[in-house]
Design a protein that fits this description.
By secondary structure, this protein is α+β, with helices and mostly antiparallel strands. It has helices at about 15-20, 55-65, 115-125, 140-145, 175-180, 190-195, 255-265, 280-285, 315-320, 325-335, 360-370, 390-410, 420-425, 445-450, 465-475, 480-500; strands at about 35-40, 70, 80, 85-90, 95-100, 160, 165-170, 220-225, 230-235, 250, 290-305, 340, 385-390, 410-415, 435-440, 500-510, 515-520, 535. The protein has 3 domains: about 1-45 and about 220-270 and about 515-540, Periplasmic binding protein-like II (D-Maltodextrin-Binding Protein, domain 2, 3-Layer(aba) Sandwich), CATH 3.40.190.10; about 65-215, Dipeptide-binding Protein, domain 1, CATH 3.90.76.10; about 295-510, Dipeptide-binding Protein, domain 3. It is globular.
Length: about 550
């Protein structure tokens, strides 16, 4: 999923000031000892599972909804959720999911196989324009329907054989199909709730709001005050309601790292989205039990808008990549244990052997730029670098700006936008260079590489390659895992050679956690299964 960096800066002043001034006698958010209080970074763009792509949205949605299967945070293996059991044909192309008869919507009505079919049809609707629609292209006929080649959804491999049995026919074997079911792209939605509020394919349909959002997960939405808080309470109709130990969760969109850390230190947050860089050594020395830092399947990178000159020249793009000293960025700017990235796909993808990455090579970068007609940057217009508000994003951007100026003679202007505006700018290709990130949805290399399929909702570079697309689609259909890995590595090598992106670093999942929070299992997906968590408030505390 798209990494948002978790932070925004646009606040309602009356809300943020009491929080910032904690040391001046202000109380901040209310102390609610029974509720889990989570710093969630950016204000979610929406809570419609078919219209979002960021981490801040995913955190909330994973508490509100549930798919056919979930992922065990410790093993990263699939486990039953809405589907109590399943079976597959010998060739792996036909699956039958048998729904748990106790599964209910938050209004008490049963969740049916037809709800999944409805949701997937909506997700694939060309008019809706869902960024994640491609994730369902493994369904037979899904791509043709999504791209408008047919309007007959009966050609898509999703059928409700009964209220309790869902049959799925795949276009090609998909070994990670079950793991994908924990992703919001596959969640069911209730037709009556969506259509009572507007058209099924209207991106502005307001159904996903308090009072109208109907969900099937362990919690239900009770309040959403934009730029203030999102409040959830335990869903009494959840299929395993008796095992949910948290009575509720409050998500706070605290975009400023320093403010979030201050709230945590004051005992007003139980979990943060990140940690200010300069605070990491302090916590390591003084409060190591509160600091969490773990491997994370995520890559921070810059996108290039290849539809604009001079970035339409791959030599210019590759020169910009080769001029980035990513080791310096990781060790001297970030200082959080991040790993310099010379490619897109991080370590930890089983069976994947990555190609040779793009080295740091200042002299080679200068030579490429001269070959492109811009010796020492002469004749090149000033470029803009877009990022969404975060101190870390700014620090990295300033360092990149300096490296490109000193190494290549290229002038770059920094452009800071809040999360929603930043997303709109990338969607419309209104940028030259844009800070980006990708966090794995499933632990498979294809999850990173399919983002750059031509016309994909998460591409946002204007780059396309028929050869690249063919390699990815051959990999989709390849049952032999060794041959599949070779195809994916060839695709990544092509991506790196064409350079529509500049890899910067591989993430670590670093955050602060109150020791009173129990049950959270760190994992390389950054996945929090909210049903596993509970609080053990200390005597004399809150």
């Amino acid at each position: 999923m798209r990494g948002n960096g978790f932070f925004r800066q646009t606040w309602v002043v009356s809300l943020v000031l009491p929080w910032v001034l904690l040391g001046a006698g202000c109380s901040g958010p209310p102390r609610e000892p029974d509720l889990l209080r989570v710093g969630n970074g950016a204000e979610p763009a929406a809570l419609d599972p078919h219209l979002v792509s960021g981490v801040s949205e995913h955190r909330v949605l994973s508490a509100l909804f549930e798919g056919l299967a979930t992922i065990n945070p410790a093993t990263l293996e699939p486990e039953p959720a809405v589907a109590a059991r399943w079976e597959a044909s010998p060739d792996g192309l036909v699956w039958r999911f048998h729904l748990d008869p106790d599964t209910r919507w938050s209004d008490g009505t049963p969740v049916t196989a037809g709800d999944f079919v409805y949701a997937w049809r909506r997700m694939l609707s060309p008019a809706l324009g869902s960024e994640y629609a491609y994730m369902l292209h493994c369904l037979a006929g899904a791509r043709a329907f999504n791209e408008g080649q047919t309007t007959d959804f009966s050609t898509v491999g999703a059928r409700a054989l009964s209220d309790g049995v869902l049959e799925v026919q795949l276009d090609h074997p998909t070994p990670y199909l079950l793991k994908m079911q924990s992703h919001f792209a596959w969640y069911p939605v209730k037709a009556a709730a969506v259509e009572a509020a507007g058209r099924v394919d209207d991106r502005n349909n307001p159904w996903a709001r308090p009072g109208t959002l109907v969900s099937n997960g362990p919690f239900r939405l009770v309040e959403w005050q934009p730029n203030d808080q999102i409040r959830l309470e335990r869903n009494p109709y959840y299929r395993r309601a008796g095992s949910v130990r948290l009575p509720g969760i409050v998500f706070y969109p605290v975009d400023n790292q320093q403010t979030e850390e201050r709230l945590f230190r004051a005992g007003l947050l139980d979990l943060t989205s990140t940690v200010p860089r300069y605070k990491i050594p302090v916590y390591r020395q003084r409060m190591p039990e509160r600091l969490q830092s773990h491997p994370y399947l995520g890559t921070y990178f810059y996108r290039f808008n290849v539809t604009r000159s001079p970035l339409n020249d791959p030599r210019v793009r590759r020169a910009l990549v080769m001029a980035l000293d990513r080791k310096e960025l990781a060790e001297r700017v970030l200082k959080g244990g991040e790993i310099p990235a010379d490619r897109l796909v991080p370590e930890g993808m089983a069976g994947y052997r990555p190609p040779e990455g793009i080295p740091y090579d200042p002299e080679g970068a200068r030579q490429l730029l001269a070959e492109a007609g811009y010796p020492e940057g002469r004749g090149m217009r000033e470029l803009d670098l877009l990022f969404n508000t975060s101190e870390a994003h700014r620090l990295i951007a300033e360092a990149a700006q300096r490296m490109w100026r000193e190494t290549l003679g290229i002038r770059v202007t920094l452009r800071n936008q809040d999360w929603k505006v930043y997303l709109a700018s990338m969607d419309s290709l209104d940028y030259d260079i844009a800070r980006s990130a990708w966090i794995a949805d499933v632990p498979d290399a294809v999850n990173f590489l399919e983002c750059f399929l031509a016309g994909g909702g998460n591409n946002r570079t204007g780059w396309s390659s028929e050869t690249y697309d063919q390699l990815i689609r051959e990999a989709y259909r390849e049952a032999d895992q060794d041959r599949r890995a070779v195809l994916l590595a060839r695709a990544e090598a092509l991506l790196l050679d064409e350079a529509p992106i500049a890899p910067v670093y591989f993430y670590r999942w670093t955050f602060l956690m109150n020791p009173e929070v129990r049950g959270l299992v760190p994992n390389p997906l950054g996945f929090i299964r909210w049903t596993d968590l509970w609080l053990e408030r200390q005597e004399g505390g809150e």
